[in-house]
Hints:
Layout: H1 2-29, E1 35-39, H2 52-55, E2 63-73, E3 76-83, E4 94-98, H3 103-108, E5 112-116, H4 117-124, E6 133-136, E7 139-148, H5 152-156, E8 163-167, H6 171-177, E9 184-187, H7 198-209, E10 216-220, H8 224-265, H9 271-277, H10 279-303, H11 322-338, H12 346-385
Helix pairs in contact: 1-8, 1-12, 8-10, 8-12
Amino acid sequence: MKKLRSFLIPLLLLLGVIFLQILFSREFTTLPPRVEVLSLDVQIENSQALQPFELKKLTGYQVAFQQGTSGDILGQPVNVIIANGLYGPFLGRELIQGTFFTEQASHLGLNVAVISEELAIQAYGTPAVIEDTIEINHHAYRIVGVYQKNSLLYALSSNGREDVYIPVNSDFHREVGSDQGIQRMMINLDQEGAGAFIENKILRDLRGVSRNAENYRVKDYTKAGIIIRQFPRITGFIAAMMLILCVWHGMLKTLKSKVKRIRKKLELLTLREIIMEDPSGYMISLLSILISLMGMILLYRLSAFKIYIPPRYIPSERLLQFDYYREIILQGLQFRNLYPGLTPSPYGRLYGLQLLINTLFLVIEMLLIVKLYRCIKSLMTAWEGDGV
């Protein structure tokens, strides 16, 4: 009973950790995939920035862009995110009232805003505030949408202020942000449209419409959701391999025991006589071996999957090409040192946080799987000792 309890506890812990991992990952994997174009300077000036009219020259892309600055609502500082109407799908937060403002609203510079549920309750005591007005630095804005902050991970990746979304060319933008360039762009690409060279292609297309494209960096996040979803599958695959090893170990012991017994009896009897002594017993042993083999194949088929690794992290010649990996790390460090003011991306921060959390989950799960493997081996040894 003690051995059984020592097996059930890590099993339940493993299932609980996997459930939490999937729960945390879902907040990220449900977000739409994207390619982001980030300015290399947090406070990029208009003369050095890409302009909205230049982005309209891009063909084959739907480009959402934003500028971020600070404002004041009800005497408290807020993050004012100035965006065009195509930004709505990239919001990543559930709209519980109204809609995101349209591209026409940003083109006309209408004073409309999308605010959080918490800010709506602070201002009006209810989230039902559509068509009400709210003042941003003494400019009146009509509320057209209310979103719900539904994630602890967003709280961890933000600065603690409420985010308010307003259109380009509106009053606050003309007063505060007109001299500040576009800090971040999001390009909506499906998985088929993304590829190993998509970053270079987008940067080349941007250079074709503006000389200021050199002041931006392209980040491909189209496969980010696939990578995050792989972590629980890696755990499932390793757990399945552990079970396959245990079944293989048990099958080999049964087979060796039967072969040893037959070899000993062959000194006095023929093989046919040995089998006829206990035909049902040998049939059961044969069936158990076949079932074990089929179980191992089934476990492998259910757990196996094609792992995705970004092409830039795979050497073209051989896998253990350590100079290649060292060069990737050095390039990353050099880039951070060269451009320390790179505009932070909430999506990028969220992705990095997801990688860290899922790696920690994976380490814990591996430890629990090792513990389970030892428990199973111990139980199998005890059963064999009892003659089961």
